[in-house]
Amino acid sequence: MPGRTDSSATTRRPDAAAPEARDTRPAPGAGTAPHASTALPQALKEQGGTPFPAGERTGVVRPLPARPRYRRQLRRIGAGRVLDIGCGPGDTLVGCAPGSVGIDHDPRSVHTCRARGLTAYTADAFLASPHARPGAFDALLCAHVLEHLDDEQVEGLLRAYLPYVRPGGGVLLITPQEAGHRAEAAPVRFTDFTLLRAFAESAGLAVRRTYSYPLPRAAGKLLRRNVFALVGQVPR
């Protein structure tokens, strides 16, 4: 339910064995980019691709802003190799296990990641890379992306990338709460616990937990970095 700091969907650890289920995930598509290259709307792409803080949405090229790091949250899903969708300049990716890969629609972000010694691609380049193999990753992170997408785009993005996560692997979806949502460039809609759960279940994920981070839910009206987080698991 919206407003809950933590859900009671289950008390099992997110990396615990899930009940046996038939794997109905589609195979990764060949020759087409994952849906809309993380599908940020055209208005955001025209601003240069990467959201700037308020007051900095000009044509001037500025350094990529720092993004929150979610390494601690990734430990909740027992992450090994991570596929980081919307990786930005790699602030979380830099702390992930060897073999982790970032994907971002903004070539500047990809360039910054590579300059830091990280592996990152635009969406189309990822498909042509040796990393685009079914089940190649232990976990998927998608932070500060879904609030920029409509229903069809969210469905397409998850359908495109989840097959690259092994059966039983973890999924971490993160979206901003009120203050963070207001600060973002061109968000499509406020994406709370209810929407995150609906997206995850529609994608066939088992929802293990939802929680507010770093502070309880009430802080989200004032603290930009307070986020909604959903921990899910790919069916085995």
List keywords for this structure.
18% strand, alpha/beta, Rossmann fold, disordered N terminus, globular, 236 residues, 21% helix, seven-stranded mixed sheet
Task: Give a structural overview.
With 236 residues, the chain is an alpha/beta fold. The protein has one domain: 3-Layer(aba) Sandwich (Rossmann fold), CATH 3.40.50.150. The protein is 21% helix and 18% strand. The chain is built from seven helices and seven strands. The chain has helices at 42-46, 71-74, 107-115, 123-127, 151-161, 178-183, 193-202; strands at 82-85, 101-103, 120-121, 137-143, 165-176, 206-213, 227-233. Strands 3-2-1-4-5-7-6 form a seven-stranded mixed β-sheet. Strand 4, helix 5 and strand 5 (165-176) form a beta-alpha-beta unit.
Outline the fold blueprint.
Layout: H1 42-46, H2 71-74, E1 82-85, E2 101-103, H3 107-115, E3 120-121, H4 123-127, E4 137-143, H5 151-161, E5 165-176, H6 178-183, H7 193-202, E6 206-213, E7 227-233
> Pairing-aware structural class of the strands and helices?
alpha/beta
SS elements, strand count: 7
Strand content: 15-25%
CATH class: Alpha Beta
Q: Can you give the helix content as a percent range?
A: 10-25%
